[in-house]
Design goal:
Layout: H1 11-32
Length: 39
Amino acid sequence: MGDTHCGFRTVNVLTACARRAIDVDTQIRRVNRPLPGTQ
C-alpha cells in the first residue's frame, strides 16, 4: 500500500522510498536481533 508512487522518477520520491526501505530494514533488525547488552 502506498508504494505505487515509487515508480515516479522524482528525486524526493526516490529518497522517501529509500528512507522507507531503510526504516523497515531497521525495524526488522530490531525485532530479530536482541539489543546489545541483553545477552
